[in-house]
Amino acid sequence: MRTTKQMKYHNPVLLQESIQGLAINPNGVYIDVTFGGGSHSRAIIDCLGPDGKLIAFDTDIDAKQNQIDDSRFLLILENFRYIKRFLRLHGIKRVDGILADLGVSSHQFDNATRGFSTRFEAELDMRMNQKNALSAYKVLNEYSQESLADLFYKYGELRSSKGIAKNIVQARLKKPIITTDDLRNALVEFLPRGRENKIMAQAFQAIRIEVNQELEVLKEFLLQAPDLLNTGGRLSVISYHSLEDRLVKRFIRNGLFEGEPERDVFGNYEVPLKKVGKLIIPTREEIKKNNRARSAKLRIAEKI
What we know:
The chain is α/β, with parallel strands linked by helices. It folds into 2 domains: 4-106 and 214-303, Rossmann fold (3-Layer(aba) Sandwich); 112-212, Putative methyltransferase TM0872, insert domain (DNA polymerase, domain 1, Orthogonal Bundle). It is built from 13 helices and 7 strands. It has helices spanning 4-9, 15-20, 39-47, 83-89, 106-110, 136-142, 145-154, 161-174, 180-186, 196-212, 214-228, 242-254, 284-289, and strands at residues 29-32, 53-57, 73-76, 95-101, 229-239, 273-275, 297-303. It has a 7-stranded mixed sheet with strand order 3-2-1-4-5-7-6, sandwiched between helices. The chain starts with a helix and ends with a strand.
């Protein structure tokens, strides 16, 4: 039974759809690479028989408080970019399904001290793994103007990225950018009335992606997934912004993140995965209950 603490940790998105997408074999081996509050893991375990097994990954030490007391469950407190390495350390070479619920957990957003949310006046941190050396503070106060402009454009999709970067550099010459308000004050001329929260959210997203190397982690994970899956095994991935979803979509379709795969003389090409069903998005009812579900997209693939 879930404790109150576990229930507050994370409000899962597309829970039933993502679990159904795994087409769970009760005696199979499954991976939840984004354990968090454990909601998806618990749903998977509910589908397993006595010989089934679930391994979960999470880089956030806070996730340990949601450990599942079940002999079929193993929590590995490591980044899922190293999934193959740590599975092999535990004697696991192939699995029957992998689930990834990308992005930031409700717990991380709602904990002001973690610095993930624009809603709080707090120190800028944004590290999912609090042992990492790189933080939002270091990005904002140590990156060059050119590097800042690049990350705000690529990861935040902000058209005014060069002006934003220039203002940050000028502001930090007077005093370090430490808190949410410090950053907001540096960007004030780029925050038109009515769009302040959207622009700040895009800036936060860009910094967070850089701090946690989110897109590189996702790429490394996806490249390993086909080798880990048994034939017929499923990959179920929930993403929350276009940069993540684009990578997932392209990899499922082409086995690549850019360009097209090489074709043989007959015009055919081989890819490791095949798409299962159509893109799944939350219902209006789910979005009404959980506003953070509004941007979620679920894609399911099967090992060929």
